[in-house]
Design brief:
The chain crosses the membrane at residues 29-50, 56-79. With 105 residues, the protein is mostly helical. Helices cover 74% and strands 0% of the residues. It has one domain (15-98). The chain is elongated and about 70 Å long.
Length: 105
């Protein structure tokens, strides 16, 4: 019998990976909460703007939308443990190892 729940993914990982998995999950849940509040508030502002006859709600939509996009980019693209972060971290480690006095580190 097949189930949709993967029991292997529910098992704890070694400590370092478990902390990373929990941190990533928390960051993504934070972004999902941010996106949900953004959507609800923007719908309410759109209704108020529609009643007033002027589309003033575009300004908070654009301003907050930029913040939401940047938050999403940080969480989904460059989050600690993400590919970009890992690449930059490896490059910095290599640079530090090449500096005089850090050869033994």
């Amino acid at each position: 019998m097949s189930t949709a729940f993967d029991t292997q993914s529910a098992l704890p990982l070694p400590d370092a990976l478990e902390r990373l998995a929990r941190r990533r999950a928390a960051q993504r849940m934070g972004w999902i909460g941010h996106a949900t509040v953004f959507t609800v508030v923007q719908l309410l502002l759109a209704a108020l703007a529609w009643r007033s006859g002027y589309a003033w709600n575009v300004w908070p939509l654009l301003g907050w939308g930029v913040g939401l996009v940047l938050h999403g980019a940080a969480v989904w693209g460059a989050a600690p443990g993400g590919r970009l972060h890992q690449h930059l971290l490896a490059a910095e480690r290599a640079r530090l190892r090449r500096e005089p006095g850090n050869a033994g580190l």
